Amino acid sequence: MEELNPTVQRLEIQSEPASISSVEKMIDNVCEQKKLNEDYYGNILIAITEAVNNAIIHGNKQNPEKKIIVQCSNSDHDINFTIEDQGEGFDFENLPDPTDPANIEKPHGRGVFLMRNLADEVNFHENGRVVELNFTISSN
Predict the structure, then answer these.
(1) Cα separation of 96 and 83, whole Å?
(2) Residue 18: pLDDT band by 50, 70, 90 thresholds?
(3) pLDDT tens per residue, range 30-70
(4) Which residues touch 26 (CB under 8 Å, ≥6 apart)?
(5) What is d(CA 99, CA 97) in angstroms, rounded to the nearest whole number?
(6) Buried b (16+ CB within 10 A) or exposed e, 15-26
(7) φ and ψ at 47, to 5 degrees?
(8) Is the pTM of this model over 0.90?
(9) How far, in Å, CA of 21 to CA of 57, rounded?
(10) Model confidence band, residue 1 (pLDDT cutoffs 50, 70, 90)
(11) What share of residues in the chain are helix, strand, coil (percent, to 5)?
(12) Strands 130-136, 67-74: pairing kind
């Protein structure tokens, strides 16, 4: 039977690395409700924490006055996360390739790459200030 009303959760956090623990709890709860296996849980956890970390560091420049909104909606067939920061955005179409040998040693630059490889779909909106990550849940 198709689920008509998806479950929606909203979290507003400060632009501080310590705030990621609240997002991790949200992810834990959603994955537990959906009874997802550990591999899928790991993909969601890494992709979403990368997105939130990027919002904190690059989007809001760790300014505690700026907030990040994390929304999660889920239905029978998918889980959708939206992360929104109050920064200026970025050029998400022209990022250096983190797998290029010239970039392998760099400490940053893998977040968007990881998101695109771990989520089933990644979309950027509002000049990169909003990232939407979709995860399709397979029927067992």
Answers:
(1) 22
(2) very high
(3) 999 999 999 999 999 999 999 999 999 999 999 999 999 99
(4) 9, 11, 70, 72
(5) 5
(6) beeebbeebeeb
(7) -60, -45
(8) no
(9) 15
(10) very low
(11) 35, 25, 40
(12) unpaired
- Round to the nearest angstrom and report the end-to-end CA distance of the chain: 14
Q: Read off the amino acid at residue 88.
A: E
Torsion angles phi and psi, residue 136, rounded to 5: -85, 130
Work out the angle at residue 18's Cα, subtended by the Cα atoms of residues 62 and 13, and round it to the nearest 5 degrees: 70
The answer to whether residues 90 and 77 touch, using CB atoms and an 8 Å cutoff, is no
Q: What is the structure's pLDDT at 107?
A: 61
Average pLDDT, the chain: 89
What is the spatial distance between Cα 126 and Cα 129, in angstroms, rounded to a whole number? 5
Query: Which pLDDT belongs to residue 138?
Result: 73
Position 40, amino acid: Y
Examine the pLDDT at 121 and tell me if it is beyond 60. yes
